[in-house]
Amino acid sequence: MAAAYLDFKDTGELARAIRRGDAPPPVSCRGTGRLRQPVWSKATMDHFAAPIGRSDAREPEDLLCLV
Q1: Over 60: is that where the pLDDT of 34 sits?
Q2: DSSP output for 2-30
Q3: Is 16 among the domain residues?
């Protein structure tokens, strides 16, 4: 879900972007052993995905209204 939210093709592309420093790393992991899954902060992902240098600081679009 994090890869899709950040507009990466798949989780492999997201992992490569994290290693390069082009995407935010997970803030934590949930679960144990083989069931362990990375967890991202939505605020961190929103900050990363926000356009940089926009002069028109509009209110962010509510994604729930698009569903």
Answers
A1: yes
A2: HHHHTT-SSHHHHHHHHHHTSSPPPSEEE
A3: yes
